[in-house]
């Protein structure tokens, strides 16, 4: 009876138009006040605990990293790299848009951010080569959902915090399903392209792929820093989020120069001669390799007592110099110039750029564009954390009334097994995902279904991926599908047209959901091969 009263209060408050966070928090407070034996002091303790939850601290920093990576330049570079890789297939530009969404998902952890960053550029590009606006919008709306499945994922962090499972295992568990989902969408696009005769981009050779990879490399290296740092034992997922935020800011401001005082200031000017370009580019390759080597070798040997930083530096310096000298020798020989001449000619380019970075360093960190990005990230963080805090209060109310235990006993009593239980979970989340924001819904549902899943022998990591995939589909199903609203906003299409455009590809995600639900190895093989099984405290 108490459970019915509590859920009726939530639904009633939502029905009269209150925001989700307020509806969850207010219904919990009213229930504790009038129907529960719990003390009102538990409200303050629960809300305070949400702000002190170590795992949840990763969310604001991943949001900030996403904000800096969404400045436009990174998305454009990812799309160019994706087009060079798969654009030559039938429907290649649409497939490249999916691939770009997959790569950006690994940088942002956010589905709406992926839709905005990639969709703003990709939809216009697809329209220019003859794709219909509906087709392009439907692809981006669906591919953007990969933002919460491919790690790092904010929704995975929320699930891990709600159930006390490993964030690291959840991140690894999303790798194979994320690649499979992207592959299924691209296969569906290819089939449609063959039927409708959609255009293909000309094959530009492997050189275009290499050039695209070089341009997008510093952005994509963020994936290596996050995943390598976590699984190399260098830092926790929360610390990885902090590193990602700082790295993203530095790359956006000083390497890609998409914002700040150095915006539109190229590293190499047209006035720089060919010899100076060769010397500068060769030394850049050497320095870049050295930096990447030091980071990667640090991740690989963090627990080693025999490999010192000096040894790693010597190896990196030697190989980096070899790469630089080889490039300068090769290019300089074509120009009939010596290596020394090329190196000396490149020094003024280095000096000009280092002086520019030094002068712009503090103005860039505290400039108007940086403050704007941080303000937008803060707004998103406050909104999301408000929902999560109130959802945690609601989950506390459920636990204090033993509602999860009652539901568990009932489901076991009526003969539910793991197979039928997962069907029920999917139906519940598919319905709930139509009306609630993913993180808030997860915090509510996870504490209820988690004990039942453990009792029925469902793997906790497998359950987490199932819930995340359901949240994916919820992002593109009306009436509250966030991706639908974002796609409508960037295309100017009505919500009804976006829904109609997205539905054919939603069918692909439903097939994917069935695969993920009943093939646990897709979710569990990689994390358990690397980190071992998840141990759940009873």
TrEMBL record:
GO molecular function: transmembrane transporter activity
Subcellular location per the Swiss-Prot or TrEMBL entry: Cell inner membrane
Sequence intervals crossing the membrane: 6-35, 95-123, 135-159, 171-195, 216-234, 240-257, 278-300, 312-329, 381-398, 410-432, 439-458, 464-486, 498-519
GO CC terms: plasma membrane
Domain TRAP C4-dicarboxylate transport system permease DctM subunit: residue ranges: 7-275, 368-522
Family listed: Belongs to the TRAP transporter large permease family.
Protein's recorded name: TRAP transporter large permease protein
Species in which this protein is naturally found: Marinobacterium nitratireducens
């Amino acid at each position: 009876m108490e459970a019915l009263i509590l859920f009726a209060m939530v639904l009633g408050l939502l029905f009269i138009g209150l925001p989700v966070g307020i509806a969850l928090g207010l219904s919990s407070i009213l229930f504790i006040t009038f129907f529960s034996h719990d003390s009102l002091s538990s409200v303050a303790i629960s809300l305070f605990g949400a702000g002190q939850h170590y795992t949840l601290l990763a969310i604001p920093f991943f949001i900030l990293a996403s904000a800096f990576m969404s400045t436009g330049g990174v998305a454009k570079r990812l799309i160019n790299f994706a087009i060079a890789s798969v654009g030559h297939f039938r429907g290649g530009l649409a497939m490249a848009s999916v691939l770009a969404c997959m790569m950006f998902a690994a940088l942002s952890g956010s589905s709406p951010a992926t839709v905005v960053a990639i969709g703003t550029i990709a939809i216009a590009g697809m329209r220019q080569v003859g794709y219909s606006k509906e087709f392009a919008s439907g692809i981006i709306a669906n591919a953007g959902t990969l933002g919460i499945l491919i790690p790092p994922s904010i929704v995975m962090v929320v699930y891990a915090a709600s159930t006390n499972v490993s964030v690291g295992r959840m991140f690894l568990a999303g790798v194979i399903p994320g690649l499979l989902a992207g592959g299924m969408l691209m296969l569906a696009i290819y089939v449609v392209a063959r039927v409708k005769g959609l255009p293909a981009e000309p094959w530009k050779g492997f050189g275009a792929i290499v050039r695209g990879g070089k341009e997008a490399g510093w952005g994509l290296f963020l994936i290596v820093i996050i995943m390598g740092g976590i699984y190399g034992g260098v830092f926790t997922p929360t610390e990885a989020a902090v590193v990602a935020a700082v790295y993203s800011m530095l790359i956006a401001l000083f390497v890609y120069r998409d914002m700040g005082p150095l915006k539109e200031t190229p590293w190499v000017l047209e006035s720089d001669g060919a010899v100076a370009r060769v010397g500068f580019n060769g030394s850049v390759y050497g320095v870049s390799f050295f930096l990447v080597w030091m980071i990667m070798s640090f991740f690989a040997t963090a627990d080693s007592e025999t490999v010192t930083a000096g040894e790693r530096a010597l190896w990196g310096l030697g190989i980096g110099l070899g790469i630089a000298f080889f490039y300068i020798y090769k290019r300089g020989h074509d120009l009939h110039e010596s290596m020394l001449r090329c190196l000396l000619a490149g020094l003024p380019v280095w000096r000009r750029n280092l002086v520019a970075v030094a002068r712009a360093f503090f103005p860039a960190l505290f400039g108007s564009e940086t403050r704007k990005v941080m303000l937008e990230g803060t707004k998103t963080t406050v909104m999301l954390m408000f929902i999560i805090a109130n959802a945690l209060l609601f989950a506390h109310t459920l636990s204090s009334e033993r509602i999860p235990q009652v539901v568990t006993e009932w489901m076991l009593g009526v003969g539910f097994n793991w197979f039928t239980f997962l069907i029920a979970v999917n139906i519940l989340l598919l319905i709930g995902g139509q009306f609630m924001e993913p993180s808030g819904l997860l915090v509510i549902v996870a504490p209820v279904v988690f004990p039942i899943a453990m009792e029925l022998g469902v793997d906790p990591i497998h359950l987490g991926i199932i819930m995340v995939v359901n949240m994916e589909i919820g992002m593109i199903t009306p009436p509250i599908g966030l991706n639908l609203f974002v796609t409508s906003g960037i295309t100017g299409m009505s919500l009804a047209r976006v829904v109609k455009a997205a539905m054919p590809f939603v069918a692909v995600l439903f097939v994917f959901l069935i695969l993920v639900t009943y093939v646990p190895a897709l979710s569990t093989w990689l994390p358990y091969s690397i980190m071992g099984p998840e141990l759940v405290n009873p």
